[in-house]
Write a structure and sequence with these properties.
13 helices, 13% strand, globular
Length: 396
């Protein structure tokens, strides 16, 4: 059996000298998946390490408890019933910690499992926090965790900053290849003029080619609709359907692994057209399976939907962003006038089309509408400058 990777939290908990280097009060930004290799939550470890100096907790989108569904569903501030410290929500009336929230903190730790995809908000909660703390006498410490999609493969278009939002604040591709600690390093080196007092506690034993199962670490859902590691691999393909009136599976037990709509009869469409259309692209590493499903909430609640499940067959050859965009194109053609783009608002943007916010560009929507070619889609993957920057901040 392979030796288990040690997360930044594991490293901190196992190093008394490192623990002793932190003087004064500490706070922790974390969520449901912030556990160590023994499945002990970071808050318990911080109680053990820092005792009464552990004074505040922060939670990202979906809440500290990771139970709030969907975007623009805010969580309240509260007091933790056991630790008896404030729990501040950074997905509430604000996504930036206020001066009052930060008062009395000397060290602010960040321990969040990311999914390696641009359209996932935890990295932006981190970078907004770094920007706020740049003017404060507060050290920000990022406890690093694995990128579950590995730290090598990049895919998708680079964010057009004209479409920047809370699900895309920085010029990175869809699969960005960074750990959350490397996002912090990239932010400090390239995306801000005023730097924070920041350091990363690196993992031990992680290497860039690793998928999450290779780490030996336990997987807990980092948000309510990413229950399985496979969900992280289908996420770059299916999250784009949030920008449509098709269901991306929310309200089912396979959210973000399936897509569908009450108007689709999946079996005949798959047999007569879709299977050949997807095969003709030459895209590999996946299979589409026609299904019917019944969402219990969100889009098309309590209405049977016909659709497709994306099965990952070979992670090394699977390119989820391309698969998702091509599937969008084919369903747009199939549904015709009954296909609907979702209308604003989306992630507090009341002007741009949600699909453009999610894609970080309007080019992909136009590509779908014009029945674009796979070659034209691949041409959007232009990020040589990103690769140079990425290479300069790699921690592993």
């Amino acid at each position: 059996m392979k030796n288990r990777v040690k997360s930044g939290l594991d490293v901190l908990y196992g190093d008394k000298g490192l623990q002793d280097s932190f003087k004064g009060n500490v706070a922790l930004l974390c969520h449901n998946a912030s556990v160590d290799g023994e499945l002990v939550h970071a808050t318990y470890r911080f109680e053990d390490i820092f005792g009464e100096r552990f004074v505040k907790i922060f939670g990202p989108q979906h809440g500290f408890s990771t139970d709030a569904q969907d975007n623009m569903i805010e969580t309240d501030h509260t007091v933790h019933p056991y630790f008896n410290v404030p729990v501040y929500s950074l997905y509430s009336e604000t996504r930036v910690p206020t001066d009052e929230m930060l008062e009395g903190i000397d060290h602010l730790f960040v321990d969040m499992q990311d999914v390696g995809c641009r359209m996932y908000t935890y990295i932006y909660t981190l970078t907004l926090l770094l920007e706020k703390c740049a003017s404060k006498d507060i050290e920000v410490i990022v406890l690093d965790r694995p990128n579950p999609l590995n730290g090598i493969d990049l895919e998708g278009n680079l964010l057009d900053m004209n479409f920047a939002s809370f699900i895309g604040l920085h010029p990175i591709p869809v699969r960005h290849g960074m750990t959350i600690g490397e996002v912090a390093e990239m932010h400090q080196k390239y995306w801000v003029s005023e730097k924070a007092n920041m350091r990363v506690i690196k993992m031990q034993g992680w290497s860039r080619e690793m998928y999450y199962e290779d780490t030996g670490l336990p997987w807990l859902l980092p948000s309510p609709n990413i229950p399985r590691i496979d969900s992280t691999f289908t996420f770059p393909a299916t999250v784009v359907f949030e920008g449509t009136e098709l269901s991306e599976g929310r309200g089912t037990t396979q959210s973000l692994e399936i897509v569908g709509d009450p108007k689709i009869e999946p079996y005949s469409y798959y047999k007569k057209h879709l299977s050949k259309a997807m095969r003709d692209t030459g895209l590999k590493g996946f299979a589409l399976r026609p299904i019917t499903f019944l969402p219990t909430f969100q889009k098309h609640a309590d209405r049977p939907c016909g659709g497709f499940q994306v099965h990952v067959i070979d992670r090394k050859t699977f390119t989820p962003w391309k698969v998702g965009q091509v599937l969008m194109r084919e369903l747009y053609r199939h549904l015709g006038d009954e296909f609907q783009w979702k209308e604003p608002p989306y992630e507090y943007d009341y002007e741009n089309m949600p699909i453009d916010i999610i894609n970080g560009s309007d080019r992909l929507r136009h590509w779908v509408e014009k029945d674009g070619s796979l070659e034209a889609l691949k041409e959007m993957e232009q990020y040589e400058s990103y690769i140079d920057d990425f290479d300069s901040i790699k921690l592993y």
